[in-house]
Amino acid sequence: MSFQQFEIQEIDQTVMLWLDELRTQTITAMNQQLDVDVKSDASDLVTNVDRNNERIIVEKIRSFDAGAVIVSEEGYGDRPTNMAGHVWFVDPIDGTMNFVKQREDFAIMIALYVDGEPILGWILDVMGNVVYHGGPQIGVYSNQLRMTNPVDTQLENGIILLSGKRLLYNMFGYDTIAKHALGYRVIGAAGPSFIRVIRGQSVGYSSKMMPWDFAAGNVLARTLDLLVTNLDGSPLDMLKSNVVLVATHQTHRKIMTLRKS
Predict the structure, then answer these.
(1) Which domains are assigned to the chain?
(2) Which of 54, 93, 96, 151 is least surrounded, with the fewest CB atoms within 10 Å of its CB?
(3) Can you tell me which residues bind Mg(2+) 1 (predicted)?
(4) pTM of the model
(5) How far apart are CA 59 and CA 261, in angstroms?
């Protein structure tokens, strides 16, 4: 199904209103006592804000786009087996550890795909009050400012962002990638890391992610002519965990060469 540009813009502006409301509620909740639970391990946290944000977003999507399916982190969505039709992805608080312990470098992320094609993505930098949003038909914006494609910089001349846990335990060849980069950083959240790549502050980012972690960033990065693949160069599976690599063309090419060697 194809959309007219005005339809895309209407969807974009509708979700922008949702995010404005969610930001206000999230900031308010941060000034109150958080209810923090542990999921798979002590570093995998979930809060009442994660759950409440997801509930609100899912309700808004179901009201706005009846018949769509929703892939979300905290259990309020669906469990689709394919990407047919309208599929929304929701990460209500990306970087919950950062949210709880640092009060920065976390995001709220939403994405829309239709029949497997990326249509729109939104990454809200909550503390910065900036929404990075858009898609292939309308371009990518930082709030209302249209963004340009990042410079195609080599790995050796830029900063690479990597998963700290996987780097620490020498997984996925991250130690080799870090050694070949000009520098490396660990942010601890997908949304803020994607933001740094699409802004041209980093030449790439890689981590093992679930679909809600990378769906929005994938839309924005691909629209800005960045490459987004599995770490082995294969296409992403939008309904499974992937070891995702988003990078400039030159950095992507270098990392593929490093992995082969």
Answers:
(1) 5-146 (3.30.540.10), 155-260 (3.40.190.80)
(2) 151
(3) 73, 91, 94, 213
(4) 0.95
(5) 48
Q: Are 48 and 34 in contact (CB under 8 A)?
A: yes
Binding-site residues from annotation: 73, 91, 93-94, 213
